[in-house]
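Annotated sample (chain length 91).
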Amino acid sequence: MPLAPSLRGGKITRTAVTDDPEMFMAATDQWYWCFEHQRAEHEGDQCRAADRLGPFPTEDAARNWRATNEAREASWKQEDDEWEGDGPRPT
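Output written by the structure step:
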């Protein structure tokens, strides 16, 4: 889906270009975890990129960023531990 720059709340953001309302909501209804304020923030109201993690599809997912991150790290570590040789790593 192509992205186009848009001005939202005085900030330039990237907005999905689509005529499908469901796709538009999925592309723009995103949440971030703000490390500065220790809270979930909705797209358009989020802090600067250096202070946040995301996007996440829901507010709850943003609040649970740590569990998601730890699960990814464990999966990547397992893949690294199982990998042998100089060829490409398994995906």
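Annotation: The two ends are 24 Å apart (CA to CA).
Annotation: The chain has a mean pLDDT of 77.
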